Amino acid sequence: MAGFTLAPTAAAEGFRLEAHEVVGSTNALALDHARAGDPGRLWIVSKRQESGRGRRGRVWATPQGNLAATLLVVIDGDLKSAATLGFVAGLALADALDAVVPGGRIAVGLDGAGSGRNRFELKWPNDVLASGAKLAGILLESALLGEGRFAVAVGIGVNVVAHPDDLPYPATSLAALGSSCDAETLFLALSDAWSVNARLWDSGHGLSAIRRRWLERAAGLGGEVAVRIDGNVVRGTFETIDEDCRFVIRDESGARRTIAAGDVHFGAVASAGAI
């Protein structure tokens, strides 16, 4: 078994850990466990994932030494509220990174998303950036269990030792940023930070507090943005996220637009029309 451990706070709250040397997909495994009756609060982690997925069916590579972590959450009722767990995950990961990566300046990256306020920023809806480049991605997948119960797999993939260099957007890793932090250390901090932010979220009752915290770390807030929606591109200024955590921009005509799903690009990439 890999050398992963839960933070004492997480263990005390009843979270459990299943660690693998290699796994196909931590999300798929978590949902399989849920269908077999697992009650949730189960972290599944690995330093190598061979069939990882990103948003919209994209491949998410997890070579040896990177972190693939999924938390299985089993809930009753409101799946709409559960969809905001991605924002909890982003905050938890950013808090964990702040805790384990030594301080120091991280420059604004090519995408122009860095603001200088935070070393690690959150890009709507589900990325964590450093140096304006993608360091981590978050993917939520769900399954209906019956009797009004749902399983939600909160998948978190972090480029710890390596990052892809053939992407249409900038990417980075902790190693490329000069950090020697390993996957085990990062997960220990993540399991602790998740507990803190999940308590704040409070089954969706604390979403307004999560939204405020998320906006404090938001990449590109107040700047030029382009959003690809079903093949069309909308350009404008990133104003906020609303009470349901949807993306809100002021478009080029001055109209306020609320976006539930789309691919977001900032700064030079947005203005260049290269999307």
How would you characterize the overall build of this protein?
The protein has helices at residues 8-12, 26-35, 79-82, 85-100, 183-201, 207-216, 267-272; strands at residues 16-20, 42-46, 67-76, 121-123, 127-130, 133-146, 149-158, 224-229, 232-241, 247-251, 256-259, 263-266. It is α+β, with helices and mostly antiparallel strands and 275 residues long. The chain folds into two domains: 8-216, 2-Layer Sandwich (BirA Bifunctional Protein, domain 2), CATH 3.30.930.10; 224-272, SH3 type barrels (Roll). A seven-stranded mixed beta sheet has the order 1-2-3-7-6-5-4, sandwiched between helices. The chain has a five-stranded antiparallel beta sheet with strand order 11-10-9-8-12. Strand 4 and strand 5 form a beta hairpin. Residues 107-112 have low confidence and may be disordered.
Task: Describe the structure in brief.
The chain is α+β, with helices and mostly antiparallel strands and about 280 residues long. It has 2 domains: about 10-215, BirA Bifunctional Protein, domain 2, CATH 3.30.930.10; about 225-270, SH3 type barrels.
Which terms would index this structure?
275 residues, alpha+beta, BirA Bifunctional Protein, domain 2, SH3 type barrels, 2 domains, seven-stranded mixed sheet, five-stranded antiparallel sheet, 7 helices, 12 strands, globular, ATP-binding, Biotin_CoA_COase_ligase, BPL_LPL_catalytic, biotin--[biotin carboxyl-carrier protein] ligase, nucleotide-binding
